[in-house]
Amino acid sequence: MAKASATRVGEQAPKLELPDTRGELQSLPAPGEAPASVVIWTCNHCPYALAWHDRLVDAAREYGPRGVRFLAVNSNDGERYPADSLGAMAERVEAEQWPFPYLHDETQDAARDWNAQVTPHLYVVDGEGLIRYEGAPDADHMDPSLEAAWLRFALDAVLAGEDPELARTDPVGCSIKWK
Amino acid sequence: MSSRTPRLELLWWEGCPSTDEALALLREEAASLELDPSAIEVREIATDDAADRERFVGSPTIRIDGADVQPPGGTPAGLTCRVYRLRDGRVSPVPDRADIRAAIEATLEGGAR
Hints:
A: two-stranded antiparallel sheet, B: Glutaredoxin, two-stranded antiparallel sheet, 3 helices, 17% strand
């Protein structure tokens, strides 16, 4: 089963520095860091990642104006899985007009550093760089009405300077395709 | 039991967590059509060679008498997770229950799908 164990809440988030689909380097932390950041391990070919994607886009559009930064990361082996190649990532960002950058983790080091196991696998990081939530967007990939509620609860808490009541859930999805 | 007993297969790969859900769907639909759920053949596909040999285009794959319940077209064989479209348009890791049922019924009736 591709069901990862969550282990990193409360720890300092590993440094993240990867190019996005336009070749621009994106990093976390960044100068003038956001009050909260969401790092989403995702990919192009996993039905779980695809099923949850629109809910994450909606959350990004809603929380972006409140200063929350969203970063999506694809660590899958793009040679064995061409749907996850850098070219395919760029095509998707363009076609779907993503509201956040899509980072290419070619070496898969970022996934290892963050202990990302599946797609989607989410992390909420506060302004101090601490991981405050890790897990799935909500309880059911097949129910769009849930609107990424677990992610939103965590963001609301962090933006209010509080601890998320639900800080850790089991991320459920496709295993990351290691080289 | 129906006098006509089609071969029911579920092919799966460990990289996708949808196997149990797919097997439950197949069992339920088989039972509702008076077929024996215990006769379902469940086979793991573990290597690229096996995927090629079995024309396995992703997990889970459900076949009724060798025919895919949602024919994958030109999708290449490989160890990956399948993306299904439900009849209401949602993306899903498992086929639509109605597609599974329709595939079994078509086989029981002996008609081409």
